[in-house]
Amino acid sequence: MPSSPPRGLSAPGAVLSALGAAVLMAMMLLTTLDVVCRYGFNNPLLGVLEITEFMIVAVAFCFLAAMQKDKGHVVVDLVVGRFSSRNQRRVNLFSLGLSLGVTLLLAWTSLVRGLEVLEVGEYSGILRIPVSPFVLLVALGFAAFALDLLADLVGVWRAKEEGE
Questions:
Q1: Residue 75's pLDDT is what?
Q2: 152 falls within a domain
């Protein structure tokens, strides 16, 4: 998790990164409080597991764009590292383009699903928390991720043009 938004992070990515950090802190405090109540007073808090599940979704998808800017996602370059710099750029362009396409597809399908859940009015089982904001947050997280993938793709493309 980045301590401050990475330089060059898209505005939605920066906002989501700050939101993710706040939710992560709240999740840690809530879990600590639940453990103290459960084992200290033999009185666990109702619905903490359900709230934590929603918080995990928020944390995971809020940091997608920040991890792209930090280059924090897993990269394995056993083969590509042996290519010429020109071919490495080509592979990088291809992989960024493919990642962008898949991410846009995921953002779109998450948005469609979020709107369906909103229309139906789906709620969680115990606390009756609306599910739609969290599904829409997944879509927003993917959209911010796509913006930063696009920025990286443009950066690699420009570097390619300058190198030629």
A1: 72
A2: yes
